Amino acid sequence: MDISLDTIKELRGQSGAGIMECRNALVNAKGDLTKALESLKEKGCIKAAEKSERVTQQGLIEAYIHTGGRIGAMVEVNCETDLVARTDEFKELAHNLAMQVAAMSPQYISEEEIPQEKKGELEEDTACLLQQSYIKDPTLTVQDIIVQTIAKTGENIKISQFTRFELGIR
Fold first, then answer.
1. Which pLDDT value is given to residue 103?
2. Do 58-166 and 5-51 have the same topology in CATH?
3. Is the domain covering 5-51 a CATH 1.10.8.10 domain?
4. Which of 11, 35, 155, 161 counts the most CB atoms within 10 A of its CB?
5. Averaged over 92-114, what is the pLDDT?
6. Mean pLDDT of the 54-67 span
7. How many whole angstroms separate alpha carbon 147 and alpha carbon 169?
8. Are 84 and 93 spatial neighbours (Cβ–Cβ below 8 Å)?
9. pTM of the full predicted structure?
10. pLDDT of residue 5
11. Are β-strands 71-79 and 58-65 bridged in parallel, bridged antiparallel, or unpaired?
12. Which CATH architecture is the domain 58-166 placed in?
């Protein structure tokens, strides 16, 4: 099946996957861009799951101060190597995560962190950063964005901690 270079480029732009991965996904999906994108997302999840046990001791601490200086956030995002921590993809992820924390005020990174006695009281999708709708694309979760970045960088990525500040709130 002939797949146009423009279609491959479009899929690559949406997924961040390599050119050959995009081409193969499109061939397997018989040229259907949506099916090819879903296939690449599944592969990204598999890659992320395979890397999830790898040690993450490098990374960045990123800060975001919202316009007006009344709300701010800091987030520590870790990866496996300093080389990846210095890439534009990783820096953008860290910045966007700090912005997410400032905007959405999560209380926990994941539902595993919620104390047992609070589990019934909280809406887990808003209380947990990884399960929140991503502010830049509400069709995705924060976890989806991290998985996409793992697929692009080839390294495990984890959020270690975050803090949100709001003027007058303690």
1. 96
2. no
3. yes
4. 11
5. 95
6. 88
7. 33
8. no
9. 0.70
10. 85
11. antiparallel
12. 2-Layer Sandwich (3.30)
* Alpha helix segments (H runs only) across the chain: 5-15, 19-28, 33-51, 82-85, 88-104, 124-127, 142-153
Dist CA 124 CA 137 (whole Å) = 19
> What does the pLDDT look like over 13-47, one tens digit per residue?
776 666 777 888 888 888 888 888 888 777 765 55
Cα separation, 34 vs 80, in Å, equals: 32
Residue type, 16: G
69 φψ region: left (φ > 0), alpha (ψ -120 to 50), beta (else)? left
Report the amino acid identity of residue 12: R
């046990």: which residue's tokens?
53
CA distances from 110 to 129, 131, 158 (A): 6, 7, 11
Gap between the Cα atoms of 157 and 59, Å rounded: 9
The mean of the pLDDT values for the chain is: 86
What mean pLDDT is predicted for residues 89-104? 97
